[in-house]
Design a protein that fits this description.
The chain is an alpha+beta fold. About 40% of the residues lie in helices and about 10% in strands. Strands 4-3-2-1-5 form a five-stranded antiparallel beta sheet, with no helix packed on it. The two termini are about 30 Å apart.
Length: about 240
């Protein structure tokens, strides 16, 4: 995509849930399952968002694709989902991209309506089970490849006993299991604002890797808020 197209995609993604402004808070924040009537109200937000964006376009520069994304980001690749079109038989490219990112974000962050928070690896695995039906195959494969085996934002336990946050993936195939990690808990269990280390680094004495990922862990189980670290980095 060109820079202009990426800007349009970013704007469309930013406004995709604008319609939820009109969704009652007691429905948005309901911890349990929605009733049929509540779900019907929730499913109005694509229409409401598209209507608001039509009005906004009169006053400021917004891409037409933003209206498509607001309307279509809950439509699946097999054209099920909502809202249902009677005539349209295709989905906008930007809508398909935003759907993948929105779904991934929804199941890997804490939500009032869901008890389980998926690790990033679990989320990618689940999404791949629905490739071609829920998600566009080409877009989802590109997304998975971009995110890597341990997606950015994953929290991992290291062989040193430290806990780290994946901040960048290594693009070399042979180093897919060795991303760059920010240390956030030391070997003694203390939360720290540690250095960023490269897991490809070799100990000159032992000629072995200094650190290796043992397993991915759930940040919530350790009282860690991943978003805090990225916000701190953005503010720095």
């Amino acid at each position: 995509m060109s820079r202009a197209e990426l800007v349009d995609l970013g704007l469309a993604a930013f406004f995709h849930d604008l319609g939820k402004i009109d969704t009652p808070l007691e429905i948005l924040n309901k911890p349990g399952q929605l009733t049929e009537d509540e779900r019907k109200i929730m499913e109005l937000h694509p229409h409401q968002g598209a209507e608001k964006l039509v009005q906004l376009r009169e006053f400021r520069r917004l891409p037409l694709s933003a209206i498509h994304v607001a309307m279509e980001h809950h439509i699946k690749e097999d054209l099920t989902g909502y809202p249902q079109y009677r005539i349209k038989n295709d989905i906008n490219l930007y809508s398909r991209i935003v759907k993948v990112c929105d779904f991934f974000d929804a199941i890997t962050t804490k939500r009032v309506y869901r008890k389980k928070v998926f690790t990033r690896a679990e989320a990618l695995s689940l999404m791949l089970e629905h490739i071609g039906t829920e998600f566009n195959p080409v877009i989802l494969k590109a997304f998975v490849q971009m995110m890597g085996v341990f997606p950015v934002g994953s929290v991992v336990l290291l062989s040193t006993g430290e806990i780290g946050l994946v901040v960048e993936n290594n693009q070399e195939t042979r180093f897919l299991l060795r991303p760059r990690i920010k240390i956030i808990v030391d070997a003694q269990g203390n939360k720290i604002d540690g250095e960023v280390v490269d897991l490809t680094e070799i100990d000159p004495e032992t000629r072995k890797y200094k650190r290796t990922i043992v397993k991915e862990i759930n940040a919530n189980d350790y009282g860690l808020n991943v978003a805090d670290y990225f916000l701190a980095q953005a503010e720095a």
